[in-house]
Amino acid sequence: MGEEKFVNSFNERQSYIITQGQGIYLSGNPVKTENFSIQKTLRNGGKIRFKIRYSAELQGFCLLEIFLMRAQNRTLTAGMTIPNSGSTASFQEQEQEFGIWEPEDYYFFFKMSSNNGKFYIENYQLYWSNN
User: Could you tell me how far CA 86 lies from the centroid of its own chain?
Assistant: First the structure.
């Protein structure tokens, strides 16, 4: 997926979407995304952020785990863990900075810490911004 550039003229924030996805259902089985290439890293300055919007229907405590993996050797580069109690959660949004230093191919791996319900990932986005 190519990088998409967008500019917020109010504060001159420049951002590039590295990858994005939508419509992922998790109910016990992990999901691996397609590989994507990251060219603009922290070596270029700025920040790399991961943003996710999701909902949950759970019968007990469960973590939504997101792992950014290097495609070449399948090693963990960055991750995010979101705790959820045993209930129904309407759409929630979370955002976190990721420390990505190497330009190469990556993929996301989404999983649940236990098989006691389901998550719906409405959308996610990994992007670089100059501030």
Answer: 22
Q: pLDDT for 8-27, tens place per residue?
A: 555 577 888 999 999 999 99
**pTM of this prediction?**
0.84
pLDDT of residue 106: 98
Residue with tokens 């998550």: 119
How many whole angstroms from its chain centre is CA 42? 17
Task: Name residue 79's amino acid.
Answer: G
Distance CA 60, CA 114 (A): 9
Instruction: Please answer whether residues 91 and 122 qualify as being in contact, where contact means their C-beta atoms are separated by less than 8 angstroms.
Output: yes
- For residues 31 and 99, the answer to whether their CB atoms sit within 8 Å is no
